[in-house]
UniProtKB/TrEMBL annotation, chains A, B:
Residues 8-140 form the Creatinase N-terminal domain. Residues 149-350 form the Peptidase M24 domain. PANTHER family: AMINOPEPTIDASE (PTHR46112), CYTOPLASMIC PEPTIDASE PEPQ-RELATED (PTHR46112:SF8). InterPro entries: Creatin/AminoP/Spt16_N (IPR029149), Creatinase/aminopeptidase-like (IPR036005), Creatinase_N (IPR000587), Pept_M24 (IPR000994), Peptidase_M24B (IPR050659). This is Proline dipeptidase.
Length: 370, 370
């Protein structure tokens, strides 16, 4: 894996040297992970102009949130800091010593205070903005990354499938969510990609609903959103079921509607499609049925090392899909006081010649009565 | 609860108006939660000079991480935003309309890019730094907060106690960690306060060790760190056990040493004690035994709405403990290739007249052979 990371750093270097920057300091954790592999939570990467890259960290273990092990960054220099110093400040100082006169930092990640301390610690160095250069590079995934996402989706489908075989009536949202997360780990996930959402009855269809002690009852809609994290890569599935043998008419109608919207968005996924056209495909269907306002601000988003990354599929998003970009398609409608439906998939954009969008989350989207 | 939050906002307003600021924009999630109660993840609080406070949010549900329900902020105005606008920008604009000419923002939370967009969106408004005003106010806890921490600790002790009654040999770190987290929720926790750490054999004693598939074996040290989150408040316990009937001599020695260091730090907790004196109390014991370098950069830290908050108990920390400040005391030693010991408690600083430090995590610290 270390060559993959070295190649990514070379691409970044090539791209940013062209823009005149001398040294780059990458501090955003998902960006660091992309460029070096698993790294401590506080790690900062100095990308030198000559390939003299250094990973700086305390591997500060005291906070239990951090991964205390050094990065699996064979073949690159790592520097373990002591005391309370900021690895970003240390990185800028190191760049200075190496003769850099400009250092590009991630202004969308560094706080105003941290940036000020950085500048104060490196008088004479010109700090510039690296911007979203690493995020831009992360947008299109290589086959290694897609393969990690594919495994994450397989694990997720399996965990969900097992849940569907068990008795659901009478169990709480909270316990169902915990069981799903345990099953993700049982099947090899590093952990959940995001907090598992289980919503039943009037809660169903609420995006990002936090599980409560409400129990599943006969006649409920039950909506479940979960995803595995595998080698750092995160996917997402969402499904809605009906509890009991005979769904009500309004449940069947609402389900069919959300399903049509979701299918329209999935079918629009093609290299060259505008981000907002994907959103529009789903939104038009829901608006025509009078449920446009129930839809959230976006229909989906990119996934990878983060569960919500570029692109964003929303009415105002600018840009066009490229091949090998994994995205979610996740429209939902919630009717206050009644409940609702969510259907979320993770897919990879592929050209029609390559078979069209690759569906990673393959659990059925028929309305199952459980 | 809403009066508690209103009183906190009044204190903040009183304190910051004295410094001349006109309107305050609080964006750091733990600070927002402290001032309004549970709130959506993207919520930003505008604290007006006249008590005209507003909570702004998308309750942006699309990312599943957010809590999509509006704050339990009865009696205060809430504003639900549409589209993709930044609630902080909207808050500054609202302060302008209300006639503010200066707005204090959290420069230690806002990124450089976000701050720049904020300034661009509000020409003519002077942006100043609110600094850590809310964090400073959060340092000393009221009895409501301490009572939430006490319940969190009770839940944590119970979950750990149950684990100790079960068979451990042959089970993986990963499964033990998941079981502990399930038990936390079973006993009423909102969730774990931080990722549960279970470390066995050569992993034991590593701070923040992420559970692996290593199984517990006869003769191992087993160290476990966990904590419950209850009404947002987070505590922490760490214990080390020995597996099998007869600990080795080196295990008994190392355990006694870490225990002495931990006790020395606990006994130093008193209003007026310097933060670094608490660290020194533990560090001196470990250094005398030649294990000073095995200790991390801090011996403990404050807890509350965050698992690691002010104060920090480290050699360079400036300041003195006050009453009603909850802290952890968590020294540990890890011997590479062999294993180690961690003993973590959560305590509340109290004056000797009030009975001295209040131990919240009461699970025994004898070396148990399981």
């Amino acid at each position: 894996m270390s060559e993959v990371h070295a190649a990514r750093r070379s691409r970044l270097r090539a791209r940013c040297s062209a823009a005149g920057s001398t040294a780059l300091v990458v501090s955003r954790p998902a960006n660091v992970r992309y460029l070096v592999g698993a790294a401590p939570a506080d790690a900062v990467l100095l990308v030198g102009r000559l390939g003299d890259d250094v990973l700086l960290s305390h591997w500060e273990a005291a906070d239990a949130i951090a991964d205390p092990r050094p990065a699996d960054a064979e073949g690159m220099r790592t520097e373990v800091l002591h005391g309370e110093s900021d690895p970003a400040t240390a990185a800028v100082a190191m760049a200075m010593k190496a003769g850099a006169d400009a250092v590009a930092v991630e202004e969308h990640h560094l706080t105003v205070s941290r940036h000020r301390a950085l500048a104060a610690g490196a008088p004479g160095v010109r700090l510039t903005d690296l911007g979203r250069a690493v995020e831009d590079q992360r947008l299109v995934k290589d086959e290694d990354e897609i393969s990690s996402l594919r495994i994450a989706a397989e694990i997720t489908d399996r965990a969900l499938g097992e849940l569907l075989e068990s008795i659901l009536v009478g169990r709480t949202e909270r316990h169902l969510a915990l069981e799903l997360e345990r099953r993700l780990v049982d099947h090899g996930a590093d952990g959940p990609a995001f907090p598992t959402s289980v919503a039943t009855g009037t809660h169903s269809g609420v995006a990002g609903h936090r599980p409560t002690d409400r129990r599943v009852e006969e006649g409920d809609f039950l909506s479940v959103c979960l995803g595995a994290r595998f080698r750092g890569y995160r996917c997402r599935i969402g499904r809605t079921f009906v509890i009991g043998s005979s769904p009500a008419d309004w449940q069947i109608e609402l389900y069919d509607l959300v399903f049509s919207a979701q299918r329209a968005a999935r079918e629009s996924l093609e290299p060259g499609t505008e981000y907002r056209a994907v959103d529009r495909a789903a939104r038009t269907v829901l608006e025509a049925a009078g449920h446009g306002s129930a839809l959230g601000p976006a229909t989906g988003h990119g996934v990878g090392l983060e569960i919500g990354e570029d692109p964003r599929l929303s009415p105002a998003a600018m840009g066009r899909l490229g091949p090998c970009v994994p995205v979610t398609v996740e429209p939902g409608v919630h009717l206050p006081g009644r409940g609702g439906v969510r259907i979320d998939d993770t897919l990879v954009v592929r050209s029609p010649a390559d078979g069209g969008p690759e569906l990673l989350t393959i659990t059925t989207k028929e309305l199952l009565a459980l």
